[in-house]
Amino acid sequence: MTTPLLSVSNLVTEFGGEKGASGLKAVNDVSFKVERGRVLGLVGESGSGKSVTGFSVMRLLERPGRIASGQIIFDGVDLARLSNEEMRQIRGKRIAMVFQDPMMTLNPVLTIETQMVEAVRAHDQVSKTIARQRARDALGLVGIPSPEERLSSYPHQFSGGMRQRVVIAIALLHKPELIIADEPTTALDVTIQSQIISEFQKLTEESDTAVIWITHDLAIVSRLADDIAVMYAGRLVESGPVSSVLTDPKHPYTAGLIASVPSRNRRGVPLRQIPGMTPAITMLPKGCSFRTRCDRATDECLVVPPLFPQQERFVRCFHPVMKAMT
Predict the structure, then answer these.
(1) Out of 2.40.10.170, 1.10.10.10, 3.40.50.300, 3.40.80.10, which CATH number does the structure's domain 6-94+174-315 have?
(2) In the prediction, which pLDDT does 187 show?
(3) Dihedral of CA 12/17/22/25: which sign?
Protein backbone atom coordinates (compact mmCIF):
# COMPACT_ATOMS: atom_id res chain seq x y z
CA MET A 1 0.00 0.00 0.00
CA THR A 2 1.40 3.38 -1.02
CA THR A 3 1.93 6.18 1.47
CA PRO A 4 -0.53 9.03 0.81
CA LEU A 5 0.90 12.40 -0.19
CA LEU A 6 -1.47 14.15 2.23
CA SER A 7 -2.97 12.66 5.37
CA VAL A 8 -5.29 14.83 7.47
CA SER A 9 -6.08 13.32 10.87
CA ASN A 10 -8.64 14.54 13.42
CA LEU A 11 -8.40 18.14 12.19
CA VAL A 12 -10.22 20.72 14.31
CA THR A 13 -10.34 24.34 13.16
CA GLU A 14 -11.87 26.88 15.51
CA PHE A 15 -12.86 30.52 15.36
CA GLY A 16 -12.59 32.50 18.56
CA GLY A 17 -11.86 30.89 21.90
CA GLU A 18 -8.58 32.61 22.68
CA LYS A 19 -6.42 31.94 25.78
CA GLY A 20 -7.24 28.26 26.07
CA ALA A 21 -11.01 28.54 25.69
CA SER A 22 -12.78 26.46 23.06
CA GLY A 23 -14.02 28.33 20.00
CA LEU A 24 -16.65 27.57 17.37
CA LYS A 25 -15.63 24.46 15.44
CA ALA A 26 -15.93 25.16 11.71
CA VAL A 27 -14.03 21.91 11.02
CA ASN A 28 -14.60 19.21 13.61
CA ASP A 29 -12.55 15.99 13.75
CA VAL A 30 -12.03 15.68 9.98
CA SER A 31 -9.75 12.97 8.56
CA PHE A 32 -8.97 12.04 4.96
CA LYS A 33 -6.09 11.02 2.69
CA VAL A 34 -5.04 11.98 -0.81
CA GLU A 35 -2.63 9.87 -2.85
CA ARG A 36 -0.39 11.09 -5.66
CA GLY A 37 -2.14 11.19 -9.01
CA ARG A 38 -5.62 11.00 -7.48
CA VAL A 39 -8.43 13.53 -7.10
CA LEU A 40 -10.45 13.84 -3.90
CA GLY A 41 -13.82 15.56 -4.26
CA LEU A 42 -14.73 17.45 -1.08
CA VAL A 43 -18.46 18.14 -1.30
CA GLY A 44 -21.31 19.55 0.74
CA GLU A 45 -23.70 22.48 0.99
CA SER A 46 -22.51 26.02 1.67
CA GLY A 47 -21.41 26.32 5.28
CA SER A 48 -20.35 22.70 5.61
CA GLY A 49 -16.69 23.55 6.23
CA LYS A 50 -15.21 22.59 2.85
CA SER A 51 -13.34 25.82 2.15
CA VAL A 52 -12.16 26.18 5.75
CA THR A 53 -10.68 22.69 5.46
CA GLY A 54 -8.76 23.81 2.36
CA PHE A 55 -7.58 26.99 4.07
CA SER A 56 -6.46 24.93 7.06
CA VAL A 57 -4.30 22.67 4.89
CA MET A 58 -2.76 25.76 3.26
CA ARG A 59 -2.32 27.47 6.64
CA LEU A 60 -4.16 30.52 5.32
CA LEU A 61 -6.48 31.03 8.28
CA GLU A 62 -6.75 34.58 9.59
CA ARG A 63 -7.46 35.42 13.22
CA PRO A 64 -9.61 34.53 15.02
CA GLY A 65 -9.38 31.29 13.02
CA ARG A 66 -6.83 28.70 14.15
CA ILE A 67 -6.02 25.01 13.93
CA ALA A 68 -6.91 23.80 17.42
CA SER A 69 -5.76 20.19 17.05
CA GLY A 70 -5.05 17.41 14.59
CA GLN A 71 -2.35 16.63 12.05
CA ILE A 72 -1.84 17.67 8.41
CA ILE A 73 0.91 15.35 7.19
CA PHE A 74 2.23 16.35 3.76
CA ASP A 75 4.97 14.10 2.39
CA GLY A 76 5.96 13.13 5.93
CA VAL A 77 5.88 16.67 7.39
CA ASP A 78 3.16 17.99 9.72
CA LEU A 79 2.15 21.33 8.20
CA ALA A 80 0.29 22.27 11.36
CA ARG A 81 3.61 22.38 13.25
CA LEU A 82 5.64 24.41 10.75
CA SER A 83 6.62 28.02 11.32
CA ASN A 84 5.16 30.67 9.02
CA GLU A 85 8.47 30.93 7.16
CA GLU A 86 8.72 27.16 6.68
CA MET A 87 5.15 27.08 5.40
CA ARG A 88 5.89 29.88 2.91
CA GLN A 89 8.55 27.66 1.33
CA ILE A 90 5.90 25.02 0.62
CA ARG A 91 2.87 27.18 -0.16
CA GLY A 92 2.73 28.11 -3.83
CA LYS A 93 5.55 25.77 -4.83
CA ARG A 94 4.69 22.27 -3.57
CA ILE A 95 1.07 23.02 -2.65
CA ALA A 96 -1.01 25.49 -4.64
CA MET A 97 -4.56 26.73 -4.19
CA VAL A 98 -7.07 27.97 -6.74
CA PHE A 99 -9.64 30.26 -5.13
CA GLN A 100 -13.27 30.53 -6.15
CA ASP A 101 -13.00 34.31 -6.62
CA PRO A 102 -10.03 35.14 -8.89
CA MET A 103 -9.89 38.69 -7.54
CA MET A 104 -8.75 37.21 -4.22
CA THR A 105 -5.58 36.15 -6.04
CA LEU A 106 -4.97 38.81 -8.68
CA ASN A 107 -3.74 42.33 -7.90
CA PRO A 108 -5.86 44.77 -9.99
CA VAL A 109 -3.06 47.34 -10.40
CA LEU A 110 -0.35 44.96 -11.68
CA THR A 111 -0.10 43.33 -15.10
CA ILE A 112 -0.54 39.59 -15.42
CA GLU A 113 3.13 39.33 -16.44
CA THR A 114 4.34 41.09 -13.29
CA GLN A 115 2.24 38.89 -11.04
CA MET A 116 3.20 35.63 -12.73
CA VAL A 117 6.90 36.46 -13.01
CA GLU A 118 6.97 37.36 -9.30
CA ALA A 119 5.22 34.07 -8.49
CA VAL A 120 7.87 32.13 -10.40
CA ARG A 121 10.86 33.97 -8.92
CA ALA A 122 9.49 33.77 -5.37
CA HIS A 123 10.54 30.11 -5.32
CA ASP A 124 12.92 29.61 -8.24
CA GLN A 125 16.10 31.62 -8.85
CA VAL A 126 15.67 32.11 -12.60
CA SER A 127 16.00 35.11 -14.90
CA LYS A 128 13.02 37.29 -15.76
CA THR A 129 13.20 35.99 -19.32
CA ILE A 130 12.82 32.36 -18.24
CA ALA A 131 10.15 33.30 -15.72
CA ARG A 132 8.23 35.13 -18.44
CA GLN A 133 8.45 32.11 -20.75
CA ARG A 134 7.05 29.89 -18.01
CA ALA A 135 4.24 32.35 -17.42
CA ARG A 136 3.41 32.48 -21.15
CA ASP A 137 3.43 28.67 -21.41
CA ALA A 138 1.15 28.36 -18.37
CA LEU A 139 -1.38 30.75 -19.91
CA GLY A 140 -1.36 28.72 -23.09
CA LEU A 141 -1.86 25.53 -21.10
CA VAL A 142 -5.18 26.75 -19.69
CA GLY A 143 -6.44 27.86 -23.09
CA ILE A 144 -5.89 31.62 -23.05
CA PRO A 145 -5.51 32.78 -26.67
CA SER A 146 -2.46 34.85 -27.67
CA PRO A 147 -0.73 34.32 -24.30
CA GLU A 148 2.28 36.39 -25.35
CA GLU A 149 0.13 39.48 -25.83
CA ARG A 150 -2.15 38.85 -22.85
CA LEU A 151 0.78 38.90 -20.43
CA SER A 152 0.79 42.69 -20.65
CA SER A 153 -2.91 42.94 -19.77
CA TYR A 154 -4.39 43.88 -16.41
CA PRO A 155 -6.96 41.69 -14.60
CA HIS A 156 -9.86 44.05 -15.41
CA GLN A 157 -9.18 43.49 -19.12
CA PHE A 158 -10.14 39.83 -18.79
CA SER A 159 -13.60 38.36 -18.38
CA GLY A 160 -14.43 36.57 -15.15
CA GLY A 161 -13.82 33.19 -16.75
CA MET A 162 -10.51 34.32 -18.25
CA ARG A 163 -9.36 35.66 -14.89
CA GLN A 164 -10.10 32.30 -13.34
CA ARG A 165 -7.97 30.61 -15.98
CA VAL A 166 -5.13 33.00 -15.16
CA VAL A 167 -5.42 31.98 -11.49
CA ILE A 168 -5.27 28.31 -12.47
CA ALA A 169 -2.22 29.05 -14.64
CA ILE A 170 -0.48 30.68 -11.64
CA ALA A 171 -1.22 27.58 -9.57
CA LEU A 172 0.45 25.41 -12.24
CA LEU A 173 3.63 27.51 -12.53
CA HIS A 174 5.72 25.36 -10.18
CA LYS A 175 4.10 22.02 -11.10
CA PRO A 176 2.95 21.50 -7.49
CA GLU A 177 2.54 18.07 -5.98
CA LEU A 178 -0.86 19.02 -4.54
CA ILE A 179 -3.47 21.48 -5.81
CA ILE A 180 -6.43 22.55 -3.68
CA ALA A 181 -9.14 23.87 -6.02
CA ASP A 182 -11.96 25.73 -4.25
CA GLU A 183 -14.86 25.62 -6.73
CA PRO A 184 -12.56 26.82 -9.53
CA THR A 185 -15.06 26.41 -12.37
CA THR A 186 -18.06 28.15 -10.78
CA ALA A 187 -17.59 31.33 -12.85
CA LEU A 188 -16.92 29.50 -16.12
CA ASP A 189 -19.31 28.54 -18.88
CA VAL A 190 -19.88 24.86 -19.59
CA THR A 191 -17.44 24.66 -22.50
CA ILE A 192 -14.54 26.28 -20.62
CA GLN A 193 -15.45 24.28 -17.52
CA SER A 194 -15.05 21.10 -19.53
CA GLN A 195 -11.66 22.25 -20.83
CA ILE A 196 -10.38 23.02 -17.33
CA ILE A 197 -11.55 19.66 -16.00
CA SER A 198 -9.76 17.95 -18.88
CA GLU A 199 -6.56 19.86 -18.05
CA PHE A 200 -6.75 18.73 -14.43
CA GLN A 201 -7.31 15.14 -15.52
CA LYS A 202 -4.28 15.35 -17.80
CA LEU A 203 -2.26 16.90 -14.96
CA THR A 204 -2.97 14.05 -12.56
CA GLU A 205 -2.22 11.42 -15.21
CA GLU A 206 0.99 12.92 -16.59
CA SER A 207 2.49 14.64 -13.54
CA ASP A 208 1.12 12.45 -10.73
CA THR A 209 -0.30 15.61 -9.13
CA ALA A 210 -2.81 15.15 -6.33
CA VAL A 211 -5.92 17.35 -6.29
CA ILE A 212 -8.51 18.28 -3.67
CA TRP A 213 -11.51 19.56 -5.62
CA ILE A 214 -13.89 21.51 -3.35
CA THR A 215 -17.37 21.79 -4.83
CA HIS A 216 -21.10 21.32 -4.40
CA ASP A 217 -21.46 20.06 -7.99
CA LEU A 218 -21.80 16.28 -7.93
CA ALA A 219 -21.71 16.10 -11.73
CA ILE A 220 -18.15 17.45 -11.75
CA VAL A 221 -17.14 15.10 -8.95
CA SER A 222 -18.51 12.08 -10.79
CA ARG A 223 -16.45 13.00 -13.86
CA LEU A 224 -13.22 14.16 -12.26
CA ALA A 225 -12.70 12.64 -8.81
CA ASP A 226 -11.44 9.22 -7.79
CA ASP A 227 -12.56 9.53 -4.17
CA ILE A 228 -15.19 11.61 -2.41
CA ALA A 229 -15.53 13.06 1.08
CA VAL A 230 -18.93 14.48 2.05
CA MET A 231 -19.02 17.18 4.75
CA TYR A 232 -21.94 18.46 6.77
CA ALA A 233 -21.81 21.13 9.52
CA GLY A 234 -18.06 20.82 9.88
CA ARG A 235 -17.90 17.04 10.08
CA LEU A 236 -17.10 14.34 7.55
CA VAL A 237 -20.21 12.17 7.18
CA GLU A 238 -19.22 9.79 4.38
CA SER A 239 -16.11 9.03 2.34
CA GLY A 240 -14.98 6.43 -0.15
CA PRO A 241 -14.52 5.78 -3.87
CA VAL A 242 -16.69 7.97 -6.08
CA SER A 243 -18.01 4.98 -8.03
CA SER A 244 -19.53 3.38 -4.93
CA VAL A 245 -20.60 6.46 -2.93
CA LEU A 246 -22.51 8.12 -5.76
CA THR A 247 -24.24 4.93 -6.91
CA ASP A 248 -24.98 3.53 -3.45
CA PRO A 249 -24.86 6.30 -0.79
CA LYS A 250 -25.04 5.16 2.82
CA HIS A 251 -25.45 8.41 4.75
CA PRO A 252 -28.95 9.99 4.50
CA TYR A 253 -27.38 13.37 3.75
CA THR A 254 -25.37 11.98 0.83
CA ALA A 255 -28.48 10.23 -0.44
CA GLY A 256 -30.41 13.50 -0.16
CA LEU A 257 -27.80 15.44 -2.11
CA ILE A 258 -27.84 12.90 -4.94
CA ALA A 259 -31.64 12.70 -5.00
CA SER A 260 -31.90 16.49 -5.32
CA VAL A 261 -29.85 16.62 -8.53
CA PRO A 262 -32.34 17.81 -11.22
CA SER A 263 -31.30 15.19 -13.77
CA ARG A 264 -32.60 12.42 -11.47
CA ASN A 265 -36.15 13.80 -11.50
CA ARG A 266 -38.89 13.06 -14.00
CA ARG A 267 -40.54 15.80 -16.07
CA GLY A 268 -43.56 17.25 -14.28
CA VAL A 269 -42.53 15.90 -10.88
CA PRO A 270 -41.43 18.45 -8.23
CA LEU A 271 -37.72 18.44 -7.48
CA ARG A 272 -36.69 16.51 -4.42
CA GLN A 273 -35.06 18.46 -1.66
CA ILE A 274 -33.58 18.01 1.78
CA PRO A 275 -35.92 19.72 4.27
CA GLY A 276 -34.62 22.63 6.30
CA MET A 277 -31.22 24.31 6.09
CA THR A 278 -27.68 23.60 7.21
CA PRO A 279 -27.49 24.88 10.81
CA ALA A 280 -25.05 27.62 11.72
CA ILE A 281 -22.11 26.45 13.81
CA THR A 282 -23.49 28.58 16.66
CA MET A 283 -26.76 26.58 16.64
CA LEU A 284 -25.81 22.98 15.99
CA PRO A 285 -28.35 20.45 17.34
CA LYS A 286 -27.32 18.00 20.02
CA GLY A 287 -25.78 14.78 18.74
CA CYS A 288 -25.82 14.20 14.97
CA SER A 289 -25.89 17.60 13.24
CA PHE A 290 -28.12 16.22 10.48
CA ARG A 291 -30.65 14.83 12.97
CA THR A 292 -33.24 17.61 12.62
CA ARG A 293 -33.39 17.19 8.82
CA CYS A 294 -33.28 13.40 8.71
CA ASP A 295 -36.33 11.11 8.44
CA ARG A 296 -34.30 8.20 9.84
CA ALA A 297 -33.34 9.91 13.11
CA THR A 298 -34.07 8.27 16.48
CA ASP A 299 -33.15 9.00 20.09
CA GLU A 300 -29.88 7.18 19.42
CA CYS A 301 -28.91 10.14 17.21
CA LEU A 302 -28.79 12.44 20.25
CA VAL A 303 -25.19 11.23 20.50
CA VAL A 304 -22.63 12.15 17.81
CA PRO A 305 -22.06 8.96 15.80
CA PRO A 306 -18.50 7.86 15.04
CA LEU A 307 -17.27 7.10 11.53
CA PHE A 308 -18.28 3.48 10.98
CA PRO A 309 -16.28 1.47 8.42
CA GLN A 310 -18.54 0.00 5.70
CA GLN A 311 -16.63 -2.10 3.19
CA GLU A 312 -14.42 0.39 1.31
CA ARG A 313 -15.84 3.54 2.88
CA PHE A 314 -16.64 5.31 6.17
CA VAL A 315 -20.10 6.49 7.22
CA ARG A 316 -21.00 8.66 10.24
CA CYS A 317 -24.51 7.34 10.88
CA PHE A 318 -26.34 4.97 13.25
CA HIS A 319 -29.02 4.27 10.62
CA PRO A 320 -27.35 4.18 7.19
CA VAL A 321 -29.24 3.68 3.94
CA MET A 322 -29.04 -0.03 3.23
CA LYS A 323 -29.89 -0.26 -0.44
CA ALA A 324 -28.97 1.57 -3.61
CA MET A 325 -31.11 4.50 -4.74
CA THR A 326 -33.38 4.15 -7.72
Answers:
(1) 3.40.50.300
(2) 65
(3) negative
